[in-house]
Amino acid sequence: MVDFQRRDTHRDESEASTGTDEKQATEEHDHHAHDVASVGAAVVTISSSRTLDADPSGDAIRDLLEADGHRVVTREVIRDDRDRIQATVNQLVDRRDVDVVVTTGGTGVTPDDVTVEAVGPLFDKHLPGFGELFRRRSAESVGTKVLATRATAGVVDAVPVFVLPGSVDAVELGVDELLLPEVSHLVGLAGRDH
Fold first, then answer.
1. What is the CATH classification number for the domain harbouring 163?
2. What is the tally of structural domains in the chain?
3. Is 59 helix (H, G, I), strand (E, B) or coil?
4. 76 Rama class: left (phi>0) / alpha (psi -120 to 50) / beta
5. Which pLDDT tens digit goes with each residue over 1-51?
6. N or C: more exposed end of the chain, with fewer CB within 10 A?
């Protein structure tokens, strides 16, 4: 049986380590060459009961982004209306100061939860790993209730769009643990120069 974890390459271990480290450093540098230092974010809360003055999930998204050195360039609260949600996201991705869109709300299974249906068709590229990882991490705290969330992400006209549930806990998980570590990289890769 072959041990693929440890292979004898007939090289001196220090030589192999140095070569690997240099190669990895070069690949890492090239891979992140397009990362951006700070992104302009649009935050959209989808709710029939919240307002800008009473929007704890939108506040949490704003606070987390700004604490990480990013800018929230606009915030909106809109009702659970498919056409309105779709039109809003379309308008936001067309803005030159918006590099990423983060929505909160409307990802459940009630009849008025239509954010995924509104935003999903706009995706030029889907980012399925976001929803998969979000559900895996959420399951640690909410168990099988995670089946009811349809958090998702994709790219619309070179702008990453993240669709999160409406609870503060879900937003904190999605933004702090998943979006922030990758947003500069994703925005840089998606780029505005097609």
1. 3.40.980.10
2. 1
3. helix
4. beta
5. 433 333 333 334 444 445 555 555 555 555 556 777 899 999 999 998 898
6. N
